[in-house]
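Archive transcription. Copying these from loose printouts into the bound notebook so they stop getting lost. Printout 1 of 2:
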Amino acid sequence: MPLGALPRVILLLLAWAARCTSDAYTYEPPGRDPVSIDNVRASEKAVRLTTDNFDELTNGKLVFIKFYAPYCPHCKEVAPDWNKLATHYQELPDSDDILIGSIDCTDSPKGKGLCARFKIMGLPTFLYGDASHGGVHLQEYPMGDKTYEQFKSFAAKALVPTCLPGSLDACAPDERPQMEFFMDMSYDALEALIKATEKEEEDANTAYKTTFAKLQKEYDQGLTEKELAITKANANKKLIREVMALKEQ
């Protein structure tokens, strides 16, 4: 090969290698390639929460959080409505104590860590409530429509201060004494109280099982007696009809 042709061959090889490198991700399933995932993440209007910022951004706030995956079909369906909710609260006056957030469960490790922390089993999942103390008070959004209007209506009712150990000012007069009683107890005393309560629960379950077993036995006995009585009655009816047929002759 003439020496002058070498630079052209090298350029062609470099161009081919660059193309292969740039197109490598296109062999991922639709929606799972890096560009698509980055586009979905960038389109989120809600506050992006990770293990790095969760406690700092949510502490002392009422939150409504979406756990999702960028390529999850159901997550994609709800994304426009969730974005509208996030925009609504960002523009709503006097709503600094409310945070609408999103957590990407495929973002390892910062998103995955939060999904593991809150034991997320399916996507999308929505948690809401007072995020104080690391989010121990958060509850799961009940089953229902996942539309902007539904989210907005639910949030207006649910994202309000509630009576919790960290927010006694929100307690009603009849709730506060019990809350303060528990707050005044030591950690060891509370732990002992939990064990005693768990024992009560266990005893209630045991009593139920005992009562159920007794009722089941009585039911089975009654069922057997009923079947025997019906069998005897059918036999007597058959015999009576046979006697009646004989008398008609």
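Printout 2 of 2:
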Amino acid sequence: MTDYAEEQRNELEAIESIYPDSFTVLSDNPTSFTITVTSDAGEDGEIVETLLKFTYVEKYPDEAPLWEIQSQENLEDGDVGEILTLLQQQAEENLGMVMIFTLVTAVQEKLNEIVDVIKNRQEEDKLRKERELEEAEKVLFQGTVVTIENFLAWKARFEMEVDELRKRRQKEEEQGGKLKLTGKQLFETDHNLDTSDIQFLEDGGNNVEVDESLFQEIEDLDLDEDDPDFDPLKMGSDED
């Protein structure tokens, strides 16, 4: 008859000596403990890590222990799922034998693979970004090929922007005060301007009277225009 308790005690002693810095006992009944599993460091120092919790069942190792991932670092959800699947496969293959060391070793190897995958992802991302930058620079250098379609589209947008700018300026001028009109526009819009000066003089009592007798019809004047010495200013002085 198998002494399960004895086998479990012996395995715990061995596990504690193998993982002295990462092994922690949580309880004795049932026996439960955690082991921190860390990958080897990558070229740039990147690591992945997980905290595994194991619990012995009564008939362990003839029955698989219970396990769970209590925490993890730098693992994606897909990585966690693969680790749980790996534990299940290893447990089924090792029934009847103490298996904690085997399970932990399999997980650590998986973490090392994940580090390599992370490195490949980083390299792929770097190459992708470089390609995108090259494509952007190529497009910038080549410019946009002008076709009838994109020229007409640009022309329509340009005319729309110009019209919008004109309307906005006109609105701003209207809001700031009346538009400044030319002299012709003033007389066309306000017919009182042609009589405003006369009205101003009448309102002020400054009517201007003109003595028409002081003027003669220009036809009655005997002007010797053919005389080169003729000076209209001397006419009055000659009569005197």
